Amino acid sequence: MTQISGTPAEGGKVQDISSRVQRESVVVIDFGSQYSMLIARRVRESKVYCEIISHKATWESVARLNPKGVILSGGPASVYEDNAPLAPDWVYESGLPVLGICYGMQVMAHQLGGIVAPSSKKEYGHAQISQNAPNQRIFQGLPSSMQVWMSHGDHITEPPPGFTSLANSENSPIVVMGNDKGMLGIQFHPEVAHTPQGKELLENFLYGVCGCQPVWTPGNFVNDSIRRIQEQVGDGKVICALSGGVDSAVAASLVHKAIGNQLTCIFVNNGLMRKGETQQVRDTFQRHFQTNLVYAEATEYFLGALKGVTDPEQKRKIIGAEFIRVFDEEATRIGTVDFLTQGTLYPDVIESDTQGDDISAKIKSHHNVGGLPEHMKLNLVEPLRYLFKDEVREVGLELGLPEEIVYRQPFPGPGLAIRIIGEVTLEKLEVLREADAIVLEEITANGLYRDTWQSFAVLTDTRSVGVTGDFRTYGHVIAIRAVNSDDAMTADWAKLPYDVLGRISTRISNEVPDVNRVVYDITSKPPGTIEWE
Ligand code: XMP
User: Fold this and answer.
1) Rounded CA separation 240/353 (Å)
2) Pairing of strands 67-72, 115-131
3) pLDDT higher for 123 or 198?
4) Which pLDDT score, from 0 to 100, does residue 7 have?
5) In the prediction, which pLDDT does 347 show?
6) Which of 189, 203, 240, 398 is catalytic?
7) 107 vs 73, 356, 491, CA distance in Å?
8) What DSSP letter does each residue of 359-387 carry, written as one string?
9) Cα 531 to middle of ligand 1, angstroms
10) Among this protein's residues, is 476 annotated catalytic?
11) How large is the average pLDDT for residues 14-23?
12) CB of 214 within 8 A of CB of 310?
């Protein structure tokens, strides 16, 4: 059993002392808009740190972020409904600049004494707005008339005292309103691509109105994180499970940069990885970064446990349990351990922070260490806890990780086992690895790798009749799966060029022994899933 020092975090929960950059920020108060996360991403793309907070957040909980401005998000409610969410008083009393977007604008108008009413005509889609007040900082450098994206039912009929209309549209005399204290409301969505000058407008708010500096950069993040990890860990010992994926790789290299040999990485080779992947993880972490790496060769254990098993859920359970057993065994060998590093990302944090908050959009949950035994619920070091996926990749590049790891497509924890239909054997793994490598080679060679969410081969449990030379064959059928997606919740089958598909097919049937047929899966999700099992 692993000897653990320090206090186990309650239920494995993180202490909130991770790499949060407190130089300065802008916070987004979430009223449940499908676009809240997009607003936060846009702000960060403009190099200003941004977090999404609940509309119930207290000033005490927000002050530590050193906010220079507040954005009130859109949302599905109407301010006149019972229990419509409102902004906390500190938003208006703090003297900070405020930008209300859509519902956020209506909330601001309502709370500050203006009048909001249902529109006779709901506005969805493109609209043209015209400025009607000169020299406004929010419009700096923008044309007097511009295209925007609207999505609202209510609108402002009378601005609150001290506010004036700064722009109008055909349907509304007040699509932008402002006062002389840096409080602004806009009826449209600057964060979506359909508002072509939305980025400039947001930047006018961030730089011109809030006075923010563009300092949220990967380099600054790395430096600040190093300091925070050092503060959190002290001279404690940290372990990290490497999976081969980008999140754990970036988390591990960041922690390694901060505390060097106090970190030990554990890589469990379950025998279910793709061709060359195991070697690449070892090369990167052992040779390049010179981290303490425990390499646990566990192929035999995993394949032994999977012998004769065909049920997909059963396979997942066995692989999960086996992983924990091997990981625990290796961690025990290390001795006293104080912390566990995980590559948890911001979308997961937003979800757990807003659980029970009925207005928030539901975001897919995933639990990287679900099922760890009680004695392994260590204090967590989660240096990526406030990053979006694309920021994790930028930080990975900043840390010198190879592009093959940084831009790696998602790969499921149970690995190739859920891409082999039926029983998993060494022989089938060999067939699938070779076929999969060809898919990835061709996808990459044709410049399609980064534009495709996932692309891989599946070994079906079907055999089909074929002919090679003068001989009849009875070989495996390989299915190719390639999808486009934003978040894996839904996916569309990728319209790969025929010549690429043709080349993949020819190469697999020529180069991979015992395969005589290749098919392309043209099912979207739903009704299919991305993986076959
Ligand atoms: P499905 O097949 O449900 O997959 O459409 C959605 C995304 O999740 C990945 N996936 C998994 N990842 N453990 C994981 O870590 C799993 O058991 C698992 N099953 C599916 C899949 O690759 C896709 O990106």
Assistant:
1) 24
2) unpaired
3) 198
4) 32
5) 84
6) 189
7) 10, 22, 35
8) TSPP-----TTTT--GGG-PEEE-TTTT-
9) 6
10) no
11) 46
12) no
* Digit-coded pLDDT (tens) for 99-133: 999 999 999 999 999 999 987 777 788 999 999 98
Render pLDDT for 176-188 as a digit per residue (tens, 0 to 9). 999 999 999 999 9
With contact defined as beta carbons under 8 Å apart, do 337 and 238 qualify? yes
- Spatial distance between the Cα atoms of 30 and 85, rounded to a whole number of angstroms: 9
487, pLDDT greater than 80? yes
The active-site residue, picked from 102, 210, 212, 240, is 102
Q: Which of 238, 243, 288 is nearest to 269 (CA)?
A: 243
User: What pLDDT, on the 0 to 100 scale, is given for residue 350?
Assistant: 78
pLDDT at 354 over 60: no
Which ligand 1 atom minimizes the distance to the CA of 491?
5
- 530, 532, 533: which to mutate for ligand 1, most atoms within 8 A of CB? 530
Residue 68: CA count within 13 A, CB half-sphere: 18
DSSP 8-state secondary structure symbol assigned to residue 217: -
On the question of pLDDT at 260 being above 50, the answer is yes
Looking at ligand 1, which atom is closest to the CA of residue 528?
5
Q: For 154-171, what is the mean pLDDT?
A: 94
Query: Six-digit token pair at 43?
Result: 């702000």
Cβ neighbors of 306 (< 8 A, separation 6 or more) are: 315, 318, 319, 417, 423, 424
Contact indicator for 156, 113 with CB cutoff of 8 Å? no
Contact 455, 493 (CB under 8 A): no
Mean pLDDT computed over every residue of the chain: 90
Average pLDDT of the segment spanning 409-437:
97
* Paired residues of 337 in beta bridges: 4
Q: Is 191 a catalytic residue?
A: yes
- Known catalytic residue at 170: no
What integer pLDDT is reported at residue 149 of this predicted model?
Answer: 95
Domains in the chain with CATH codes: 25-209 (3.40.50.880), 218-406 (3.40.50.620), 425-520 (3.30.300.10)
Please tell me the distance from the alpha carbon of residue 281 to that of residue 404, in angstroms, as a whole number.
10
Question: Using CA atoms, how far apart are residues 338 and 299, in angstroms rounded to an integer?
Answer: 28
pLDDT of res. 16: 41
Predicted confidence band of residue 21 (pLDDT cuts 50, 70, 90): very low
Per-residue pLDDT, 353: 60
* The two structure tokens encoding residue 379: 């204090």
Cis peptide, bond prior to residue 527, ω within 30 of zero: yes
Give the H or E element holding residue 116.
strand 115-131
In this structure, the residues whose C-beta lies within 6 A of any atom of ligand 1 are 316, 410, 412-414, 454, 488, 525, 529-531
Three-state SS letters, 423-488? CCCHHHHHHHHHHHHHHHHHHHHCCCCCCCCEEEEEEEEEEEEEEECCEEEEEEEEEEEEEECCCC
Non-local (6+) Cβ contacts of 19 within 8 A are 221, 224, 225, 228, 229, 254, 383, 384, 385, 386
Whole-model pTM? 0.85
473's tokens = 């064959």
Dig out the tokens for 437 from the structure: 């490598």
Q: How confident is the model at residue 352 (pLDDT cuts 50, 70, 90)?
A: low
